[in-house]
Specification:
The complex is a heterodimer of chains A (about 260) and B (about 230). By secondary structure, chain A is mainly α. In chain A, about 85% of the residues lie in helices and about 0% in strands. In chain A, helix 1 runs antiparallel to helix 11, helix 10 crosses helix 11 and helix 10 packs parallel to helix 12. Chain B is an alpha/beta fold and about 230 residues long. A six-stranded mixed sheet of chain B has the order 5-6-7-3-8-9, sandwiched between helices. In chain B, strands 2-1-4 form a three-stranded antiparallel sheet, covered by helices on one side. In chain B, strand 8 and strand 9 form a beta hairpin. The longest helix of chain B has 18 residues. Classes of the chains: A mainly alpha (about 260), B alpha/beta (about 230).
């Protein structure tokens, strides 16, 4: 029980700030594509006998490499769409060749009950790295979001910064996929940031509010999931949807808008 | 005149397409230099080469040691998902935790009115001024402006150019500007360079009476009818 609550809080703390940057930088499709493509990580894990986290690293590098190679002529979104589809197809073919060795159901939808102390440790490390990176690179990231050219003219190593951000996002996605599932992980990243956007007028305020909303979503999700015996990720998403709706109505009805 | 930047026979191609060829000119300290030319003749490419955003194929680019360059783009990669106020943007651009509101007020008569507004709520002209003010606050030696007046009405354009001249005179800032706006540019620049893949003509606007290339360039608004001893 303690592990489940701890994991849900850690996921919120990691995803909320990352979600703000994903929204600002328009990386929504990248996160979604990566989450779906991570099905191949499961296949790599089974075939190579690797722990899922290492298979996830291989998978992430493969995804990033393919996207950056394909995007030259077709643009980002098309490259992500094609790459994630190819990787899902590969995973499905491998599953067909090795029947009975894959549990795609848990990969798609996740299960917080499977969380272990090892997951807590892993999430703590990701939270530490994420926090450190965002604190150190906050201004550079914001400037890069506003204008890559201005950022470059100020000596910011834009590509390195974007690569580091996407790497951290990728590891966060891979590390949580068995808990929240590939289908819903992007929504868990985005919804707290989207709710926070309704009520914020500075980037820092939006990050703090996203953390607050992520906590509210995830804890209410855990409680409902445990007591009503319902799957964790879908319940969290529904809680997020309800909070978004209430916030939206409140902001519009009571003229709290900035 | 001390050159801060010097292009020496610089050429750049994208694949088989030659963008600029054998371009040579200098940006002198404390001067406003304006690059004019039609779309696609390599103006922005030259600015990006200075900023290190593009490489070049041949020639030489000499940049003064420890030169601090500020860049004001045509527009921001504006995402309405990011909540940022005018004051917040100035703080980010100036690289200071707090900004001098007096300084900002001296550049925008309506700073008090707009400082807490989200940048998505101000006009293109106001945003351009905010970008310029934020860049100035970062104390650069050289400011590169890429078509800074494209979102401004005629009155605001005049005001904008007046601000640039003031900046030059007050702080000695060197300005390199890309523009289509021939007549206003001529009035406010120390050096004008006409580009069409190569430097067609360059010089002081006051030389216009004696420069047939400039005369040709200005003979029709925005359309360069000029004669050379070579073909384009």
């Amino acid at each position: 029980m303690a592990i489940i609550i701890l994991v849900s809080i850690l996921i919120g703390l990691i995803f909320a700030p990352l979600g703000c940057f994903v929204l600002w930088k328009r990386y929504v499709y990248f996160g979604d594509g990566l989450a779906h493509a991570s099905m191949l990580a499961l296949a790599i894990s089974v075939i190579a006998g690797l722990p899922i986290i290492y298979a996830g690293i291989v998978n992430t590098l493969l995804f990033a490499l393919l996207v950056f190679k394909v995007k030259t002529k077709s643009g980002n979104n098309a490259a992500i769409g094609m790459t994630s589809s190819i990787m899902i197809s590969l995973a499905l073919i491998v599953a067909d060749i090795f029947p009975g060795r894959f549990n795609f159901n848990s990969m798609f939808f996740g299960d917080i009950i499977t969380a272990t102390s090892e997951d807590v440790f892993r999430l703590c490390i990701i939270l530490g790295v994420t926090s450190l990176f965002l604190v150190i690179a906050f201004r550079q990231l914001i400037l890069t979001i506003l204008s890559r050219d201005i950022a470059h003219s100020r000596g910011i190593r834009v590509k390195l910064l974007e690569f580091l951000f996407l790497s951290i996002l990728s590891f966060a996605v891979i590390a949580t996929i068995k808990i929240v599932g590939a289908l819903l992980v992007t929504s868990m990243i985005l919804i707290p940031a989207m709710i926070a956007r309704l009520t914020s007028n500075t980037p820092i305020m939006m990050i703090w509010l996203a953390i607050f909303f992520a906590g509210a979503m995830n804890l209410s999700g855990v409680v409902l999931s445990l007591y009503a015996d319902l799957p964790f990720a879908p319940i969290v998403i529904l809680c997020g949807g309800v909070i978004y709706l209430f916030t939206y109505v409140a902001m519009n009805s009571f003229s709290f808008k900035r | 005149m001390i050159p801060l930047i010097e292009f020496k026979s610089l050429s750049k191609r994208f694949g088989n397409h030659k963008v600029v060829e054998g371009v040579s000119f200098k940006l002198n300290k404390g001067e406003i230099t304006t690059l004019i030319g039609q779309n696609g003749v390599g103006k922005t490419t030259l600015a990006k080469i200075i900023l290190g955003l593009e490489s070049y194929d041949s020639g030489e680019l000499i940049i003064a040691k420890d030169l601090r360059i500020g860049y004001v783009p045509q527009s921001l990669d504006l995402s309405f998902a990011i909540p940022i106020t005018v004051k917040g943007l100035l703080e980010i651009l100036s690289q200071h935790k707090t900004i001098s509101e007096d300084f900002a007020s001296s550049y925008f008569l309506d700073f008090e009115e707009i400082k807490n507004k989200d940048i998505s709520e101000i006009s293109g002209g106001q945003l351009q001024k905010v970008l310029l003010a934020g860049t100035i606050m970062s104390k650069p030696d050289l400011i590169i402006l890429d078509e800074p007046t494209q979102y401004l009405d005629v009155a605001s354009q005049q005001e904008f150019y007046k601000t640039l001249v003031e900046l030059k005179n007050k702080f000695g800032i060197t300005i390199f500007m890309i523009s289509h706006d021939l007549f206003t540019v001529m009035k406010n620049s120390d050096q004008v360079i006409c580009l069409n893949g190569h430097v067609c003509c360059s010089g002081k606007p006051t030389d216009i009476d004696s420069n047939s290339d400039f005369k040709n360039a200005l003979s029709e608004i925005g359309v360069y009818i000029h004669t050379h001893d070579h073909k384009h």
